[in-house]
Amino acid sequence: MGLLNKQDNPFESSNIIITGADTLLNWARLSSLWMMGFGLACCAIEMMAASASHYDIGRFGVIPRPSPRQSDIMLISGTVTLKMATRTKLLYEQMPDPKYIISMGSCSNCGGPYWEHGYHVLKGVDRVIPVDVYVPGCPPRPEALLEGLIKVQEKVRKQSLAKTAV
């Protein structure tokens, strides 16, 4: 009986994994996301706390990078002023595809407490660039940022890199 089962499924006890190309590439991509932190205000302190040893953002495969040309994720944390909006868009355009944007904190999500009386504050970074994940809070806790990164990883896992014919 054991011999018969081994003939029916020869891969049962071996070290062979069968998967698709998209699944393999997405697994590799979500395990090594390179992030450019764009800390503009007090939310940047929480972003730094998430990178420290207690929360350790690196265990999710997130590696901080100083350049947009090397980054998969742009993490915008803090108040985006109208003057910074053009620079934010320029950095977004310099990132290679596929790229993901995380908006962290009330200020970058919707202008925060400054939106009503601040003539210089952008009423949300999504008015300039597309945002993939919003992390709410003023400032959000490091756990919320880690959850936002997990949401980006879920998005990467479901993506297909194959070009479709138009």
For this entry, give a set of tags.
five-stranded parallel beta sheet; 6 helices; 5 strands; alpha/beta; 166 residues
Write structural notes for this entry:
The structure is a single chain. Helix 4 (82-94) links the parallel strand 3 and strand 4. This protein has helices spanning 2-8, 21-30, 43-51, 82-94, 106-110, 142-158, and strands spanning 34-39, 63-64, 73-77, 100-104, 133-135. It is an alpha/beta fold. A five-stranded parallel beta sheet has the order 2-1-3-4-5.
Layout of secondary structure:
Layout (H helix, E strand, L loop, with lengths): L1 H7 L12 H10 L3 E6 L3 H9 L11 E2 L8 E5 L4 H13 L5 E5 L1 H5 L22 E3 L6 H17 L8
Parallel strand pairs: 1-2, 1-3, 3-4, 4-5
Helix pairs in contact: 2-6, 3-6
The residue-averaged pLDDT reads 82
- What is the helix tally? 6
Structural class: alpha/beta
Quaternary organization: single chain
Our measurement of the CA-to-CA distance between the termini, rounded to an integer number of angstroms, reads 52 Å
Main sheet record = 5 strands, parallel
Radius of gyration: 20 Å
Number of strands: 5
Rough outline: elongated
Strands of the biggest beta sheet: in what spatial order?
2-1-3-4-5
